[in-house]
Amino acid sequence: MLRFHRKHMFTLLLTVLLLWALAAVASAVEVPDLSRSGSISVTLRDTETKQEISGGTLTLYQVGTAEENDGDYSFALTGAFADSGISISDVQSEDTAKRLADYAKKSKISGTTASVQAGGVKFADLETGLYLIVQETAADGYSAVSPFLVTVPIQEKGSYVYDVDASPKTSVQRTTTPQQPVTPPKNPTLPQTGQLNWPVPVLTIAGLLLFAAGWTLCFGKRKHAK
After folding, report:
1. Under a CB-based contact definition with an 8 Å cutoff, are residues 130 and 64 in contact?
2. Residue 154, helix vs strand vs coil
3. Of 37, 146, 153, 158, which residue is most buried, by most CB within 10 angstroms?
């Protein structure tokens, strides 16, 4: 009887420890705070030189609202995009972003537009959800950024980040090659303008010959007249 009691006590203790371990693991998993606001920052950089680019505009659309379920969350289309029939299950899909951008343009959905200044653009005070960023006006000399999706928050290294830097999603390429400045020669040869110098001595000699011929003729006439 004593042996039976110890066996059951050991089983009960093991069960309690297992349940405690499972509870500890569950509490360690971070869940998103859907009541918290966030932001999205975008800095455009030249693909080759990595220099910051200013000019053009970026427009932000909220295409999905966040829904939490047992520590995980997903997105549902907002009212403006509900009739699009576009699946947003894959938020990394470039095709999904392009289809949503086309739908927003076709349906004349209004978004939040900001001019791209030095240092980029920051969209602040955003509720949790799925956002679409579209560049309708590109910077001079550059192609427009392809439409892309951003979630607020995003998960990085097991934690949720509410102030999102979406710059890695951009790829800005030149459409024109910048002209290289022309360096003038050290000893430039100025172009000749007006009358050239070489006829001067020729005309001088010709004038002297004509004068001599005229003098000879005149002198000869006087001699014959005598």
Report:
1. yes
2. strand
3. 153
The span from the CA of 17 to the CA of 20, in Å, is 5
Residue that is written with structure tokens 């090659």 in the block: 177
Count Cβ atoms below 10 Å from residue 20 Cβ, excluding itself: 10
Per-residue pLDDT, 24: 43
> How far is 203 from 207, CA to CA, in rounded Å?
6
Q: Is the peptide bond before 153 cis (omega within 30 degrees of 0)?
A: yes
Nearest-angstrom CA–CA distance, 55 and 138: 7
Q: pTM for the complete prediction?
A: 0.67
- Measure the CA–CA gap between 121 and 105, rounded to whole angstroms: 21
In the numeric block, which tokens belong to residue 8?
A: 């059951």
Dihedral of CA atoms 136, 140, 145, 150 in degrees, nearest 10, equals -70
Q: Are 61 and 111 in contact (CB under 8 A)?
A: yes
For residue 153, the tally of other CB atoms under 10 A from its CB is: 20
Amino acid at 142: Y
Exposed (0-12), middle (13-18) or buried (19+): which is 98, by Cβ within 10 Å? Answer: middle
SS3 180: coil
pLDDT digits (tens, 9 = 90+) for 93-109: 999 999 999 999 999 99
CATH number corresponding to 38-169? 2.60.40.10
